[in-house]
Amino acid sequence: MLDRTEKKQAEHEKPTRLTRKITFRLSESEYAQISDDLTVCGITISSLVRKRLLCVRVASRADLAVLSELRRLGGLLKHIHNETRGAYSSLTAQAIKDLSAYARALTEKRRTGSPEEN
After folding, report:
1. Which structural domain, as residue segments, surrounds residue 50?
2. Are 60 and 40 in contact (CB under 8 A)?
3. Tens digit of pLDDT for each residue in 63-97?
4. What sign does the dihedral 41-43-45-46 (CA atoms) show?
């Protein structure tokens, strides 16, 4: 495990400079699939192909937005629970449970799936 000094040094290291170039051809259907993935992920074609080749998980912008919204809603439910001093505790507890379950399922899907499956 890294201590604080090592973490700071790692954060300030210059990113690896990308100097090598690979050119390859694709069929129309392969290019269409990659184009669709680019739309979903919101990254450059170079970044997408590099991540795929190196088996790095590629996150969908939509999934990240949904997870952010689920967290926000969970916070609002907690606020409602606190402000009403538990008057709706059974309802807020069930809603938080449902939001948490959906967020866990979405996170698991992101870990195991590719953008076109999300």
Report:
1. 23-58
2. yes
3. 777 888 888 998 898 898 888 888 888 888 888 88
4. negative
